[in-house]
Amino acid sequence: MIRSLILLAGVLAVSSASNARADAVADFYKGKQVILSVGSAAGSGFTVYARLLSRHFANHLPGKPNIVIENRPGASGLRHMEYMVTVAPRDGSAIGLLNPAVTTAHMLRPKSAKHTTDKLAWIGNANSEVSTCLFWPHSGVKSVGDLKKREYVLGSSGGTGSSYYGTRAMNTILGFPWRMVSGYQGSSDVMLAGARGEIDGTCILLSGALKAQYWQNYQRGEFKVILQMPPGNHPDLPGVANTMDVAANDEQRQVLNFIYGSWAYGRPFAAPAGIPADRLTALRKALKVTLEDKAFLAEAARIGVSVNYMSPEELARRVAEIQATPASVVAKVRALIPSKKKKQQ
Per-residue pLDDT averaged across 288-314, rounded? Predict the structure, then answer.
């Protein structure tokens, strides 16, 4: 009897402490404004995810704060990374949806990538992405076999982004005779340039953006997806060739995997490292519950947004895995990045 009473008292004490922590988190967030920053332009696929999440996330976070989106584009996510590490408050009132390229930027551009992901606290990942190469009808490209027939003009973002050096990899390593035009602010600008006939194709569009923003255009035949990249083949792109199959050897495949493999965690959410543990736990739980919420999933399906939750632990494991890429492979990718940021003609 006494033993049972002692056990009951222990359970009640643990429950009381847990409730106290929950109440403290709710007290902090009640009436607060939480900034959800995005490391890309307002018209990007990342912003589509952020806006969708913002309409549901607070319902699952104690205190139900107001979620406000801020876009911080530039330098392929590095300006956003700088904000997250040096400016964003560490109290749980700031979270970010990052460009996954920031997880390898320090390996490719150590002079400009000042911060590594150990200065972040992962919250979770909303979806795995597949990058694509597409061409407009005026290019005449209908299949992979057409890609070496003549010089094609491909548009990309700045020279520090994977859309640029990934396209260069296919140009220099796979031998596609492509000419680069870079400096576009984001995928929406590139897609507009293609529709206007300024460029023949691009390798900037992710499967998430394709589904959410351009699926009807794709189905109407306004452009054709010719290639998809690691980490795998997208189920909605059957029959589309993968660059891993086009590559001639393992080294080429390693290069392509390093460039594109981080899209396996294509919509990663994080907070600055050092935020209170109870608030980080609440943010992680809120993201998971939101991404599994029926109302959220119904809206995601309605606007064509794909969702595939990844835990912070799995996200951290994937990041560590790609950061373990051999230095010799990283060096080959680094050689594809121009020493000066300029528009390629």
Answer: 96
Percent of the chain surpassing pLDDT 90:
76
Vertex 41: Cα angle to 36 and 42 (nearest 5): 70
| The one-letter amino acid at 264 | A
Residues β-bridged to residue 160: none
One-letter amino acid identity for 189? D
- pLDDT-above-70 percentage for the chain: 91
Average pLDDT rounded to a whole number, residues 129-140: 96
Per-residue CA distances from 183 to 39, 43, 57, 307 (Å):
16, 16, 34, 30
Q: What is the pLDDT of residue 228?
A: 95
Assigned CATH topology for domain 132-262+328-334: D-Maltodextrin-Binding Protein; domain 2 (3.40.190)
Q: Which CATH superfamily is domain 25-127+266-310 in?
A: Bordetella uptake gene, domain 1 (3.40.190.150)
For the stretch 92-106, pLDDT in tens is 999 999 999 999 999
| Token representation of residue 203 | 């390798």
**Residue 334 token pair:** 């680094």
Query: Residue ranges per domain, the chain?
Result: 25-127+266-310, 132-262+328-334
What letter would DSSP give residue 311?
Answer: -
Please list, in sequence order, all residues whose beta carbon lies within 8 angstroms of the beta carbon of residue 295, skipping any fewer than 6 positions away: 56
Alpha-carbon 170 to chain mean position: 21
Contacts of 289 (CB under 8 A, 6+ apart): 60
The model's pTM is 0.82
The span from the CA of 163 to the CA of 144, in Å, is: 18
Average the pLDDT over 287-293 and give the result.
98
Q: Which of 27, 86, 118, 101 is nearest to 265 (CA)?
A: 101
Task: Label residue 81 exposed, middle or buried (CB < 10 Å: 0-12, 13-18, 19+).
Answer: buried
Percent helix, strand, coil in the chain, to 5, is: 50, 15, 35
Q: What is the pLDDT of residues 153-209, one digit of tens each?
A: 999 887 667 788 889 999 988 999 999 998 887 788 999 999 999 999 999 998 988
SS3 309: coil
